[in-house]
Write a structure and sequence with these properties.
By secondary structure, the protein is an alpha+beta fold. The chain is built from six helices and four strands, in the order ααβαββαβαα. The protein has one domain. The longest helix has 23 residues.
């Protein structure tokens, strides 16, 4: 059987093409990532727009912030309790965090509690988060989704959460956390 004579250059080009294809296939398998959708659901986006208008000028609104970036565990050691406590907050996120424009310190957090928060597992998560944020001295406000939001009502809730009495209680909790 006689095979047609292939030019050496053609063989090299085919081999290089196969090699490039193999690399591309391997990269796709090694990095199976794609862009996720929007950070906020339509309900969260609607609330965000009103929250931005309602927030005091001295604050910025951040979205989807890790709880572990807002609060931390009191103990510096690597004992089992510290690791367990860190693991409980490591993968959780807050819907919105109010941050001081100058210091970039978190001053309060906000959760938009949709119908999923009625589930038993979410109620347990919410209870844990409420207690952890209170222990750390960071006010946590909760709002229910609505068709329309009143910026003045949201601002009033923020003002109450950041009032001197609330702030002094938060400062005492923070001082206790630093000990």
């Amino acid at each position: 059987m006689n095979l047609p004579h292939l030019d050496f250059g053609v063989i090299v080009i085919i081999a290089v093409a196969i090699g490039i294809l193999a690399v591309l296939v391997n990269k796709a398998a090694a990095f199976p990532y794609r862009k996720a959708g929007p950070l906020l659901s339509p309900a969260e986006r609607q609330f965000f727009g009103v929250l931005e208008r309602a927030a005091p000028a001295a604050l910025r609104v951040f979205v989807k912030v890790r709880v572990a970036d807002v609060i931390t565990v009191k103990r510096d050691g690597r004992d089992k309790r510290t690791i367990v406590a860190l693991n409980r907050i490591a993968a959780k996120h807050l819907d919105y965090v109010l941050v001081d424009r100058t210091s970039m310190e978190s001053v309060a957090a906000i959760e938009l509690d949709d119908s999923s928060h009625a589930r038993a597992d979410r109620r347990a998560r919410d209870s844990f988060l409420d207690q952890a944020m209170k222990a750390a001295g960071v006010p946590l406000l909760r709002f229910k989704p609505r068709g329309r939001y009143d910026a003045a009502e949201i601002r009033a809730a923020i003002d109450v959460a950041l009032s001197p009495q609330t702030t002094s209680e938060a400062g005492k909790a923070r001082q206790g956390n630093e000990a």
